[in-house]
Amino acid sequence: MPFSIALAKMIGFNRFSFIYHCQDIHPEAMQAAGRSGIFDFFLQKLEKFSLKNADKIITLSEEMKDTLHHKTSNKNIFVADNYIPHVSSRSKKKKSKTSEVKLIYAGNIGIFQNLELLVDILLNEEISNTSLTIIGEGASKKHISKMINNHKNQNKIKLLPSVTSKEIGEIIANHDFGVVSLIPTMSLYASPSKINTYLAEGIPIICISDKNTELEKIIHKEKIGAYCYTNDKSNIINTLRNLSQLKNELDEDNIYSYYLKSNSREKLLANLFKTITS
């Protein structure tokens, strides 16, 4: 679809503005996941043609913006994160008073998410008082289920089907950290979609991604969670072992205030509208 609009724009149909909203950068995202295809060369050509002829390009993160700058001569590239159609259940949250750390991942269980790494660590390393609930569907769910089944520590991980948007808010609100996870280099081509869902419930995030991302800076500056590196297993293990202490240091009200200030539905829609119309 972007290619056909770009083509119409190029051949003289100039009565409209072509705004290319880039959610993932392909085929690079699939290549990063080890899924190269015979049509990658042609997809690259189509993508570059669409990018070149767009009046504006909107993407989701500073890392994705930098990637697109290397891919096209078009300089009209802007960042506007997606909003979430989510109603917070924060008022119903019951804060855990124990040393137990309850992690939750809610979303697509796919090849970009790298959840197998976290599951492997929780099953096979000495990470005490920490459990993980995974809710959703996706290409990697079957493999993760096999990892968990009959393992001596299988009780540490729950693998559940998708639930309604109302139910997911209430479930998230009763956990301690929301998991955001990507395979190595994927931050250059895609952006996690569930961050704001977690923050809307006032719970911090634990992010497993690349080094030196904009999200890493935000998490540390705003004190909204923990950040560890997807290609550094020992760093992830140490971060997990420190979560019990960290959850008592982080302020739920501060996390929710950050969400309202920067990432609420109203703020993100206003930013998107301003980006499109300016």
From TrEMBL:
EC category: transferase
Domain of life, source organism: Bacteria
GO molecular function: glycosyltransferase activity
Alphabetical keyword list: Glycosyltransferase, Transferase
InterPro entries according to UniProt: Glyco_trans_1
SUPFAM superfamilies: UDP-Glycosyltransferase/glycogen phosphorylase
Domain Glycosyl transferase family as annotated: residue spans: 92-249
EC number: 2.4.-.-
Listed name of the protein: Glycosyltransferase
Naturally occurring in which organism (per UniProt): Candidatus Thiothrix anitrata
